[in-house]
Amino acid sequence: MLNNADMESAYGSESCSNPDQTLKKETFSFQELTKTREKWVHTYGQMIGMGIVSFILILLLINSYRMSSKIEETHLIVSNLQTQFDKLSKLELRTTSELQKAESLEKENEKVMEHLSKASKEMKPMMINEDVRNQEKRNEENPYKDSVYKINSASYMFGATVDTSYSSSSDLSGESDLVLLDRPNPPANRAWCSDENEPVLTVNLANYIKPTAVSYQHFKWNRTVPHGSPRVFNVFACLDFYCEKTEPLISNCEYKSSGQIQEQIYPIPSNSRTKSIGKVQFRFLKNHGNVKKTCVSLIRVYGESPDLPKMKEYKMDPNSRTCSDLRNKYHNNPFLYDKFEYKHCGTLFSNGCCSVCPECCDECYIEDYTRKNNIICGILGGVFFAFAVMMLIVLCAYIGDRREFNRSRQNGRH
Predict the structure, then answer these.
(1) pTM value surpassing 0.85
(2) Chief localization class (predicted)?
(3) What is the tens place of the pLDDT at every residue in 278-298?
(4) Is the Cβ–Cβ distance between 310 and 346 less than 8 Å?
(5) Where are the domains of the chain?
């Protein structure tokens, strides 16, 4: 039989073994908890990192789209400059060829006169009709007669543009060419306005012309001219591309309130030495009401040119098949028309929509951002959808892992 000491020793060893087992279980549960947390951090850290990288890539995509839009605008400016340069080159070639023809005709006339003088000495004098002789002489001096066209070379639809680099700052950001959009009644809310003192408006003409007159037309007014409309202005011809050298065409043009005539024309003096110009500057000295802001509605530059410029052609948007569709959308769905319909002035004017929907032409844009806005909205919508799907996947995975963690923790306790 065992004595009391041996029994106490035996019981004591059993009581010591129970805490060791409990400690091992708790250590195992803690290790599982740590592993689960590390797994969760590793998994969701990768997913969150991928989400951040995806978001950065989408932002880079949007930035690249904006840069491509700016590159397209730069290409358009370069193409306009190239067109102006080609026109100038053609004009110089034509002038050179005409001078060469004139020189060759003079030489031929001299030879003919020498032969006639020799023949007159050998032959008897002959009576020649003076009128016939003069007519033949005119025919010899002018063997080619080119047609001359009288046009408004400052028309946007012919290709004229506002040179914003050499013009005063305006409220019409990106829409300065509206001041060249030749229409019977320019709208009041689409004027070229500037807060500068004696603002300058520089215009690249559609082609080289011999200027004959300039005109200014304000939006429709009754009795008195609105405050801010030009009152006195000068017009200069730019002799170089940068308008560093200029020559006055006409000075002290006054837009009068008497007579209530919207378009007032100012003929250029016939003794002007300017032969051919491609760029002009309007310098506004005073405005009606002597207010700070000067607002210009519509300017025209008339002149003679041997070439008739072609009007720009624009295709209708596939979503709006006819001008009647545009008119219906304008009146029935003004919000959709304003936000999602393509309203470029060139499209409306070149397709004859102004007679069908004149209000559409009054509110048209030179640079319509509708398509760009649609693309940007589509990209942002795609980004939001992708982000929502990613967050939903992360949430579902988190819930699943949480359940697994709770299950493993309960099993560890048991």
Answers:
(1) no
(2) membrane
(3) 999 999 999 999 999 999 999
(4) no
(5) 149-305, 313-389
